[in-house]
Amino acid sequence: MTLLHDLLLVTTYDIDRVGIATILDKSMRYKVHTLSPNRIASSFFEGVSPTPIGLIDIELHDTDPVLVANHLSEYRPGMPLLFFARGESPQLFLRGVRNGILGTVQKTDSPQELLRKLDCALQKQNLWNKEELKRIQACFFLDPSVSGLEMSLTQRESDVLMKLSCGMTNRQIADDLSISYEMVKEHVQHILRKIGVTDRTQAAVWAVRKRLC
Question: What percentage of the chain exceeds 70 in pLDDT?
Fold first, then answer.
């Protein structure tokens, strides 16, 4: 018998609730629980598995989806969280990255793509792609709240991480900083080891969350 995973869908739109439930009921892999953003309480979680996934509509009426995400995390610390969106909202996505949102499910995603993203989130994999991160990063550099951060990276490593998080390749970083390609590769490996991630995408997400520039 296939184990059903719980999906907590926070939305105020019946059409989205019905659409998601119809797709996931057919998959026989996820059980949908619909939550109103103003009715999140500990009693709701009594019948939910210890490791649900949260899917939060970014178009909630008069409710901040990031605050909803934080509220869910209070009841299930470490719970994988995704935004549910139609199109892009880079400034909101920036706040989402900073608050641990793993990525977005688009309302136009195919059933196969929806299931792929949920499966990845279940494994706590970051789903932000390179193009999304570049647009998020653009908002990051314009954000007046950005402040410095003391950390163990050298100045050159910080420079490389900033370029990397903007989507530049190692060759482009080498040309831009006037250093060798091999030196960039070495810096990238040092960065990944120091900040405790395994790939460039995770490093870019880390940079946004830490407000590093």
Answer: 90
